[in-house]
Amino acid sequence: MSSRRMTTIAGSLVTAAFSTVMIFSVTASADEGPASSKGGKAVDEAPAGVELTTTLPETISVDNSSQKTELTATVKNDGSKDSGKIRLLVVGFDGMTVKNVQGCSPIEEKDLPEGSNSGFTCPIDNLAAGKSKSYAVDATFDVKKTGKICLPVQTSDGKKTFWQQGPVPFGTTNPSPNAPATPLLLGTDNKPVAPGGDELPKTGVGRDLLPLGAAGASLMAAGVAGLWWSQQRPRRTTC
Prior knowledge:
Strand content: 35-45%
Largest sheet: 8 strands, antiparallel
Number of strands: 13
Oligomer: single chain
Shape: elongated
Radius of gyration: 21 Å
Protein backbone atom coordinates (compact mmCIF):
# COMPACT_ATOMS: atom_id res chain seq x y z
CA MET A 1 0.00 0.00 0.00
CA SER A 2 1.39 3.40 -0.98
CA SER A 3 2.32 5.94 1.67
CA ARG A 4 -0.15 8.40 0.10
CA ARG A 5 -3.05 5.95 0.49
CA MET A 6 -2.05 5.13 4.07
CA THR A 7 -1.98 8.84 4.92
CA THR A 8 -5.47 9.31 3.45
CA ILE A 9 -6.91 6.38 5.44
CA ALA A 10 -5.27 7.57 8.64
CA GLY A 11 -6.68 11.06 8.11
CA SER A 12 -10.17 9.62 7.57
CA LEU A 13 -9.97 7.59 10.77
CA VAL A 14 -8.90 10.63 12.79
CA THR A 15 -11.75 12.67 11.31
CA ALA A 16 -14.28 9.94 12.12
CA ALA A 17 -12.99 9.59 15.66
CA PHE A 18 -13.15 13.34 16.20
CA SER A 19 -16.72 13.46 14.83
CA THR A 20 -17.76 10.67 17.20
CA VAL A 21 -16.32 12.52 20.17
CA MET A 22 -18.16 15.69 19.12
CA ILE A 23 -21.47 13.82 18.84
CA PHE A 24 -21.05 12.28 22.29
CA SER A 25 -20.19 15.67 23.76
CA VAL A 26 -23.25 17.38 22.29
CA THR A 27 -25.57 14.58 23.42
CA ALA A 28 -24.23 14.62 26.97
CA SER A 29 -24.46 18.39 27.33
CA ALA A 30 -28.08 18.38 26.11
CA ASP A 31 -29.25 15.94 28.80
CA GLU A 32 -29.76 18.47 31.56
CA GLY A 33 -29.18 22.20 31.77
CA PRO A 34 -28.66 24.54 34.73
CA ALA A 35 -31.24 24.40 37.52
CA SER A 36 -34.11 26.89 37.54
CA SER A 37 -37.09 27.75 39.77
CA LYS A 38 -39.06 28.98 36.73
CA GLY A 39 -42.82 28.61 37.23
CA GLY A 40 -42.50 28.51 41.03
CA LYS A 41 -44.52 30.43 43.58
CA ALA A 42 -44.98 30.55 47.35
CA VAL A 43 -48.45 29.41 48.43
CA ASP A 44 -49.14 28.97 52.17
CA GLU A 45 -46.90 30.89 54.55
CA ALA A 46 -43.94 28.84 55.76
CA PRO A 47 -42.77 28.87 59.41
CA ALA A 48 -40.64 31.87 60.38
CA GLY A 49 -37.08 31.49 59.12
CA VAL A 50 -37.96 28.71 56.64
CA GLU A 51 -37.75 29.49 52.91
CA LEU A 52 -38.52 26.50 50.70
CA THR A 53 -38.11 26.44 46.92
CA THR A 54 -37.53 23.87 44.17
CA THR A 55 -35.56 23.75 40.94
CA LEU A 56 -35.72 21.80 37.69
CA PRO A 57 -33.18 21.62 34.86
CA GLU A 58 -33.47 24.27 32.16
CA THR A 59 -33.00 21.57 29.51
CA ILE A 60 -33.80 17.86 29.26
CA SER A 61 -33.37 15.40 26.40
CA VAL A 62 -35.97 12.85 25.28
CA ASP A 63 -35.02 9.68 23.41
CA ASN A 64 -37.27 9.73 20.33
CA SER A 65 -37.53 5.93 20.08
CA SER A 66 -38.18 5.02 23.74
CA GLN A 67 -39.64 8.37 24.90
CA LYS A 68 -37.46 8.06 28.01
CA THR A 69 -35.96 11.06 29.77
CA GLU A 70 -34.19 11.78 33.05
CA LEU A 71 -34.02 14.90 35.18
CA THR A 72 -33.13 16.12 38.66
CA ALA A 73 -35.72 17.65 41.00
CA THR A 74 -34.24 19.64 43.89
CA VAL A 75 -35.85 21.12 47.01
CA LYS A 76 -33.96 23.84 48.90
CA ASN A 77 -34.25 25.59 52.23
CA ASP A 78 -32.77 29.05 51.76
CA GLY A 79 -33.96 30.20 55.18
CA SER A 80 -32.19 30.52 58.52
CA LYS A 81 -34.08 27.74 60.34
CA ASP A 82 -34.62 24.01 59.77
CA SER A 83 -37.79 23.00 57.95
CA GLY A 84 -38.98 20.16 60.17
CA LYS A 85 -40.93 17.34 58.52
CA ILE A 86 -41.99 18.15 54.97
CA ARG A 87 -42.60 16.31 51.73
CA LEU A 88 -41.90 16.93 48.05
CA LEU A 89 -44.31 15.74 45.36
CA VAL A 90 -43.22 15.09 41.77
CA VAL A 91 -46.29 15.03 39.50
CA GLY A 92 -46.63 14.55 35.73
CA PHE A 93 -49.25 15.96 33.34
CA ASP A 94 -50.29 15.43 29.72
CA GLY A 95 -47.48 13.84 27.67
CA MET A 96 -45.06 13.74 30.61
CA THR A 97 -45.38 10.66 32.82
CA VAL A 98 -43.26 10.23 35.94
CA LYS A 99 -42.10 6.61 36.10
CA ASN A 100 -39.87 6.65 39.18
CA VAL A 101 -38.31 9.03 41.69
CA GLN A 102 -35.36 7.61 43.57
CA GLY A 103 -36.13 7.15 47.27
CA CYS A 104 -39.82 8.11 46.88
CA SER A 105 -43.17 6.29 46.81
CA PRO A 106 -45.79 6.36 44.04
CA ILE A 107 -49.00 8.29 44.70
CA GLU A 108 -52.11 6.14 44.37
CA GLU A 109 -54.27 7.01 41.37
CA LYS A 110 -57.17 8.13 43.56
CA ASP A 111 -54.91 10.60 45.38
CA LEU A 112 -53.33 12.19 42.30
CA PRO A 113 -53.97 15.92 41.73
CA GLU A 114 -56.77 16.59 39.25
CA GLY A 115 -55.65 16.28 35.65
CA SER A 116 -52.35 14.54 36.43
CA ASN A 117 -51.33 11.12 35.17
CA SER A 118 -48.62 10.10 37.66
CA GLY A 119 -46.84 11.21 40.79
CA PHE A 120 -44.45 10.33 43.61
CA THR A 121 -44.19 11.56 47.18
CA CYS A 122 -40.82 12.11 48.84
CA PRO A 123 -40.90 12.44 52.66
CA ILE A 124 -38.15 14.58 54.22
CA ASP A 125 -37.62 14.34 57.99
CA ASN A 126 -35.86 17.70 58.08
CA LEU A 127 -34.15 20.05 55.65
CA ALA A 128 -31.56 22.09 57.50
CA ALA A 129 -31.15 25.80 56.87
CA GLY A 130 -29.09 26.44 53.76
CA LYS A 131 -29.30 22.83 52.60
CA SER A 132 -30.88 21.13 49.59
CA LYS A 133 -31.94 17.61 48.62
CA SER A 134 -32.01 16.30 45.06
CA TYR A 135 -33.94 13.42 43.52
CA ALA A 136 -33.27 11.52 40.30
CA VAL A 137 -36.47 11.39 38.24
CA ASP A 138 -37.16 8.85 35.49
CA ALA A 139 -39.97 9.82 33.13
CA THR A 140 -41.33 9.43 29.64
CA PHE A 141 -42.31 12.29 27.36
CA ASP A 142 -44.53 11.86 24.31
CA VAL A 143 -43.10 14.53 22.00
CA LYS A 144 -46.37 14.43 20.00
CA LYS A 145 -48.09 16.06 22.97
CA THR A 146 -47.56 18.87 25.43
CA GLY A 147 -46.05 17.85 28.78
CA LYS A 148 -45.84 19.41 32.23
CA ILE A 149 -44.39 18.67 35.65
CA CYS A 150 -45.30 19.98 39.10
CA LEU A 151 -43.21 20.13 42.31
CA PRO A 152 -45.19 21.09 45.44
CA VAL A 153 -43.43 21.29 48.83
CA GLN A 154 -45.85 20.56 51.66
CA THR A 155 -46.18 19.77 55.32
CA SER A 156 -45.79 16.04 55.94
CA ASP A 157 -49.59 15.63 56.13
CA GLY A 158 -50.20 17.64 52.96
CA LYS A 159 -52.44 20.20 54.68
CA LYS A 160 -50.24 23.13 53.67
CA THR A 161 -48.28 23.81 50.52
CA PHE A 162 -45.37 26.16 51.15
CA TRP A 163 -44.12 26.26 47.55
CA GLN A 164 -45.22 24.96 44.17
CA GLN A 165 -43.26 24.90 40.93
CA GLY A 166 -45.64 24.35 38.09
CA PRO A 167 -47.39 22.73 36.46
CA VAL A 168 -44.60 24.05 34.26
CA PRO A 169 -44.14 22.81 30.68
CA PHE A 170 -41.15 21.31 28.95
CA GLY A 171 -41.14 21.60 25.19
CA THR A 172 -39.66 22.80 21.93
CA THR A 173 -40.86 25.04 19.12
CA ASN A 174 -38.42 23.39 16.71
CA PRO A 175 -39.01 19.62 16.87
CA SER A 176 -36.71 17.17 15.12
CA PRO A 177 -38.62 13.85 14.82
CA ASN A 178 -35.88 12.19 12.76
CA ALA A 179 -33.11 12.91 15.28
CA PRO A 180 -32.11 10.35 17.93
CA ALA A 181 -33.23 12.71 20.73
CA THR A 182 -35.23 15.88 21.19
CA PRO A 183 -34.00 18.60 23.58
CA LEU A 184 -36.81 20.26 25.55
CA LEU A 185 -36.68 23.61 27.36
CA LEU A 186 -38.26 24.36 30.73
CA GLY A 187 -41.13 26.84 30.50
CA THR A 188 -41.68 26.23 26.77
CA ASP A 189 -44.98 24.91 25.40
CA ASN A 190 -44.30 21.93 23.16
CA LYS A 191 -45.29 22.32 19.50
CA PRO A 192 -44.98 18.87 17.92
CA VAL A 193 -45.09 18.17 14.20
CA ALA A 194 -48.60 17.40 12.98
CA PRO A 195 -49.01 13.85 11.63
CA GLY A 196 -48.41 13.90 7.88
CA GLY A 197 -47.69 17.61 7.74
CA ASP A 198 -45.06 20.24 8.25
CA GLU A 199 -47.11 22.66 10.34
CA LEU A 200 -46.51 22.89 14.07
CA PRO A 201 -49.91 23.27 15.75
CA LYS A 202 -50.05 23.49 19.54
CA THR A 203 -51.68 20.43 21.09
CA GLY A 204 -53.51 20.17 24.38
CA VAL A 205 -55.43 23.02 25.93
CA GLY A 206 -53.69 26.21 24.85
CA ARG A 207 -54.90 29.32 26.64
CA ASP A 208 -54.32 31.42 23.52
CA LEU A 209 -55.85 28.94 21.04
CA LEU A 210 -58.79 27.15 22.64
CA PRO A 211 -61.68 28.97 24.31
CA LEU A 212 -63.21 27.35 27.36
CA GLY A 213 -65.67 24.71 26.24
CA ALA A 214 -64.08 24.17 22.84
CA ALA A 215 -61.93 21.28 23.97
CA GLY A 216 -63.10 17.79 24.80
CA ALA A 217 -63.48 16.61 28.35
CA SER A 218 -60.13 14.84 28.42
CA LEU A 219 -58.25 17.90 27.20
CA MET A 220 -60.05 20.11 29.71
CA ALA A 221 -59.02 17.78 32.53
CA ALA A 222 -55.42 17.86 31.37
CA GLY A 223 -55.35 21.66 31.24
CA VAL A 224 -57.19 22.45 34.45
CA ALA A 225 -54.03 22.58 36.53
CA GLY A 226 -52.36 25.19 34.36
CA LEU A 227 -55.50 27.31 34.27
CA TRP A 228 -55.79 27.12 38.06
CA TRP A 229 -52.18 28.17 38.44
CA SER A 230 -52.58 31.31 36.35
CA GLN A 231 -56.03 32.44 37.52
CA GLN A 232 -56.47 31.55 41.18
CA ARG A 233 -55.07 32.90 44.43
CA PRO A 234 -52.85 30.60 46.47
CA ARG A 235 -54.76 27.65 47.94
CA ARG A 236 -53.90 24.50 49.78
CA THR A 237 -54.91 22.39 46.81
CA THR A 238 -51.77 21.14 45.13
CA CYS A 239 -51.00 21.34 41.39
